[in-house]
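ESCALATION

Customer reports they have been waiting on this structure for their group meeting. Please prioritize. Original submission:
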Amino acid sequence: MRFKKSAFFVLLVVVLLAATSVAFAADPETKAPPGANEPFKEAGIESLLYLQDWGCDINYAGDGYLNITGFTQARQTVDYIMVRLYLQRWDGSNWVDMASWPFERHADSYAGGAKGLQVTKGYYYRAKAVHGLTENGYNESASSYSGYIYAN
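Update from on-call: job pushed to the front of the queue and completed.
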């Protein structure tokens, strides 16, 4: 009986140590990025004469596939308008640009684009977009960020 109690205790200690070591061995990429998981926009302090709205989004389709979208909207037709979409991945301490794609228009008030991608599972991803326009030599720019998703 004493042997069974000792064997059970040793087995229990081994199981607890194994479970603890697995929990501490998790990849840093699986830890969620800090801060709120909400989209946000940025623009300079100058007043925006032509730039009306802008944004980007990310959607997870499952099985390692996701879609990113972005748009730039002017108040009127401008000489040049663009949005550059970036896919960013959380490396455990920073958002890293993985790739980017430009979507540009001339003599228009809207530029938008979308990109479907296959990504490595086990990471957090978000979309970033840089927005810009030019009218009669005057430039305006802004940026936006989506919330993040976990690819599993």
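Sent to customer with the following note: The helical segments are 2-24.
Escalation resolved.
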